[in-house]
What does this fold into?
Amino acid sequence: MDAALFYIFAAITLAGALATVTLRNPIHCAISLIASLLGIAGLFLLQAAEFLFAVQILLYVGGVMVLFLFVIMLIHLEEASKLRQYSRQWPVAVAALLAVFAEIATFLNAGFPSLPPSPAPRLLAPGNTERIADSLFYVYALPFEAASLLLLIAIVGAVWMAKKKEAAE
Amino acid sequence: MSFTPISTGHYLVLSAALLLIGSVGLLMRRNVIIMLMSIELILNAVNINLVAFSRHWQHVTGQVFAIFVITVAVAEAAVGLGILIALFRNRGTVLSDEIDLLKW
It folds into this structure.
């Protein structure tokens, strides 16, 4: 059952990713990216990461992708989707990607390297969300605050960047 | 139907495939919006890896790091789309190889 679900979600994820990369119309790309992200959310659920499953759907599908769709509709792109879709440097890109593919293939073929022994298991507290909260607010409190600062900067930067400039003074 | 039980290696192969697909989009497409979407794909591949190892080691830290990766991805998307809107307003294009002011 688990295996079948894994293959279903993996197929959704990879098919959505391929459609994202190959389709011409950006709106179709965004919708297939949503499918891909939902597949990834399913994989999180399969690995008992319930909190990340919820975050993936709320934040990515509900937040980021809506932002993408808004921007796509704000910028009319009809002419861009009729033009050439791939940049002229694509042979270089293909060569680089083949190199990366060879690297990953040899690494994965070599089998699992002997993983270092696991740290003391921390999955003992009652629920996935509680465990993440424990870790996030005790062990990683400083990175958490840094992330909030990063988000503040990103909000201000995005608003300032997208704002219509007043007549030049 | 008989499947081999799903191990951490399965997730690593999936995440590697997703990373490669995202890199294809990032390096080969001209449309900046689709390049941004490809970056989201790459970051999600990283998240799959982190959660797979969190599962493998029965340790929650990988999931916490995945949350940080999501935070950075959201900030990147917001700023990137802001830049994109400013770019479209000033240059009237979203094709990356037509933005060549620095190229002589």
Remarks:
- Chain A has a mean pLDDT of 85.
